């Protein structure tokens, strides 16, 4: 009997039609919440009203309103995606599955990065075919970004983008069995902003029972803004728009105008008497929390969740090399960056110099950036989770150096993603401007990294020992 050419899945709110290929089945732009329009852009995600008939799920979703991002000679379109693809119904997921049957397979739910401002399920890096090939159901999530997603406003819930991810996890619990997944074996994983959201959900009471494991790739357990910091961004946005800082006033403003004022919000000094800027002025948006996630894990599901967590060895290079700043950096530049992340910048620079005695100013600047953005907050999360969970924390350090941009890009932020998704041999990653550079990917590294992620999602063991605070160890991947 011939296979059905176009597979159809019945979900609680309606049927969807996907496509089948040799890797399994793909369902795109499946709504997990109602379209956030008008005042709804600043409301919690609402249940989708459903549809009659069979909904086409073969075309990619619209995206959250977002600006274009430019990284000079480096092609970051595979990471950010195509930018703003207009359409109201963008609170959607893509589902890649070996088969929509009763398989009860491990489920992995991916939350993209992009500085809380950009990103979508359309990004080429998040190709789910290798996960389906290896018996995993992969769900990638769109969520609100920028002003609708993260600006703190009177009359609106905070962290609406995080609430979207929480709603998507609820959708997974209700629906993923119809796509061949096991709702009792869900791994939430994210990178950069998505990793910081993942860490925050570990400390969110409403997330209890929604996922069994988590993977944090280059996030920060201390990456949230304080309410005071968020207020500064809100005040600047309201001033730029000429309206009061309320959800009611912002609801009258079109998304195009929100994007127009984003440059006015970049570079605001968010240092306060009690906090430094965790994003070092690279983004005006983050989660807004009274307590950092690493210090609030006991409030959420963290104690019952296995955690795989790590960073790359040269995270800061992404913010210097494509812009030509690695070579041009001076000692004053290093001190200026350190002043944004610590009250004693001289001591910070001295500590980094002591561990890198031959480093250039550019290399020191990158190290300070990487530690401020990701390293320190990851270390706090590791220690906090290890204390709380008792042997359920696994740590990695990714060190493969990209040869992009004349061999200088290195083991920078985002460079582990092609290995996690096992697409490191794709030609578009290796052209003159590609993320991995002209040299071929190391033989076996993608299989090892991707295999570790799949093994962790399947049974909680990536293939190396759990973290022991008495003998700290991070598994070296690449490098």
TrEMBL record:
Enzyme Commission number(s) of this protein: 3.1.1.-
Alphabetic keyword roster: Hydrolase
One Pfam family per UniProt: COesterase
InterPro entries: AB_hydrolase_fold (IPR029058), CarbesteraseB (IPR002018), Carboxylesterase_B_AS (IPR019826), Lipase_GDXG_HIS_AS (IPR002168), Type-B_Carboxylest/Lipase (IPR050309)
Protein's name according to its UniProt entry: Carboxylic ester hydrolase
Domain Carboxylesterase type B span(s) in chain numbering: 6-463
MF terms in GO: hydrolase activity
């Amino acid at each position: 009997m011939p296979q059905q050419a176009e597979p159809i899945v019945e979900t609680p709110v309606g049927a969807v039609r996907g496509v089948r290929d040799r890797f399994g089945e793909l369902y795109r732009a499946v709504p997990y919440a109602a379209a956030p329009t008008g005042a709804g852009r600043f409301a919690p995600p609402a249940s989708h009203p459903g549809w009659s008939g069979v909904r086409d799920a073969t075309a990619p979703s619209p995206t959250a309103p977002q600006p274009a991002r430019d990284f000079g000679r480096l092609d970051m379109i595979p990471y950010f995606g195509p930018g703003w693809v207009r359409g109201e119904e963008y609170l959607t997921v893509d589902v890649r599955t070996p088969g929509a049957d009763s398989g009860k397979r491990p489920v992995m739910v991916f939350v993209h990065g992009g500085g809380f401002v950009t990103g979508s399920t359309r990004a080429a890096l998040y190709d789910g075919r290798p996960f389906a090939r290896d018996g995993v159901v992969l769900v990638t999530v769109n969520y609100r970004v920028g002003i609708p997603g993260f600006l703190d406003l009177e009359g609106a819930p905070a962290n609406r983008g995080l609430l979207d991810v929480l709603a998507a996890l609820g959708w997974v619990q209700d629906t993923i069995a119809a796509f061949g997944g096991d709702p009792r074996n869900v791994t939430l994983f994210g990178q950069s902003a998505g990793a910081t959201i993942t860490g925050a959900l570990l400390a969110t009471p409403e997330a209890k029972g929604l996922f069994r494991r988590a993977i944090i790739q280059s996030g920060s357990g201390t990456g949230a803004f304080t309410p005071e910091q968020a207020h500064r961004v809100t005040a600047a946005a309201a001033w730029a728009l000429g309206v009061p800082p309320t959800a009611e006033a912002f609801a009258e403003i079109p998304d195009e105008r929100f994007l127009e004022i984003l440059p006015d919000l970049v570079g605001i000094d968010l240092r306060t008497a009690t906090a430094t800027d965790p994003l070092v002025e690279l983004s005006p948006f983050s989660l807004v929390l009274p307590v950092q996630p690493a210090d609030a894990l006991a409030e959420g599901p963290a104690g019952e969740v296995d955690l795989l967590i790590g960073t790359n060895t040269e995270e800061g290079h992404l913010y210097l090399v494509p812009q030509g700043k690695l070579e041009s950096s001076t000692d004053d530049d290093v001190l200026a960056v350190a002043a944004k992340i610590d009250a004693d910048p001289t001591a910070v620079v001295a500590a980094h110099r002591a561990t890198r005695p031959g480093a250039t100013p550019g290399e020191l600047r990158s190290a300070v950036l990487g530690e401020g953005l990701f390293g320190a907050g990851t270390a706090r999360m590791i220690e906090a989770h290890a204390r709380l969970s008792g042997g359920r924390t696994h740590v990695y350090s990714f060190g493969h150096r990209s040869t992009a941009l004349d061999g200088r890009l290195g083991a920078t932020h985002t460079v582990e993603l092609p290995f996690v998704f096992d697409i490191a041999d794709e030609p578009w990653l290796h052209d003159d401007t590609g993320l991995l550079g002209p040299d071929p990917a190391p033989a076996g590294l993608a299989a090892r990294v991707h295999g570790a992620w799949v093994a962790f999602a399947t049974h909680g063991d990536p293939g190396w020992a759990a973290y022991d605070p008495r003998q700290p160890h991070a598994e070296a991947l690449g490098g």
